Amino acid sequence: MPIEAALLLGGLLAAQAVASWFRIRRGGDAGSTLWRMTLAGFVAARLVFLLRHHDLYGGDVFSMLNIRDGGFDGPAGLLAACVAGAWLTRAQHALRKPVLVSTLAGCAVWLGGGLLNQGLAPGGAPLPAIEVRKLDGTTVSLQSFAGRPVVVNLWATWCPPCRREMPALQAAQQASPGVAFVFVNQGESPSAVGRYLADHGLRIENVVLDPGSQATARTGATGYPTTLFYDAAGRLRERHMGELSQATVRATIARLDNGR
Length: 260
What we know:
Blueprint: H1 3-26, H2 31-52, H3 54-57, H4 61-65, H5 74-88, H6 93-120, E1 131-134, E2 139-141, E3 150-155, H7 160-175, E4 180-186, H8 190-199, E5 207-210, H9 214-219, E6 226-230, E7 236-241, H10 246-257
Parallel strand pairs: 3-4, 4-5
Antiparallel strand pairs: 1-2, 1-5, 3-6, 6-7
Helix pairs in contact: 1-6, 2-5, 7-10
């Protein structure tokens, strides 16, 4: 589970634990109110993200509903949850204190845990020092792409989510000429990869082969696709396991540019 999701889950559990304490000791069940607040925040966070990147969705309802890309606006979700809590307790004075304290406890775990993790985390791991092979048979060092932001996508032709996200990554590459996208195929032959790209009409630059899946081992990837975002100094800043949308890629690259 990604650390962001784990921290959010921890915050929700902490809020529910405090609400349960209030229910047992003082009466009044704030649990259902908290779940409604969570739902409001979840929906708002997704809607705001969609609005910020509406130009990339083009009315595609399926991609809008596909939350596996991790496209959410956290501050907007938190604000919406707080507004929902104020509205839901406007006529229930007995619930105001349990809801407020439970919400603060959840936020403390979520936001405090994030700050603690950021403070204790070691510096970003560098681009792996491995040699990969181009489709024409020549070799290149993965570290040679450093000097600008680098997006490394670990993928395979037999991987369904890899196949689904490839057009979005191709579009992201074309829209971000200042970023080096490197598509590191894991363990397949040049003919298999070349045939797949041709059959699907993909014109992607920097498709390379990693026959021994060294990148998987060196980066600690546990599944495909895994996408790694490195800053211009070649240090890992973010990772995402699973399918990505073009909007999520753009938002992550913007965070790299802002030094976050």
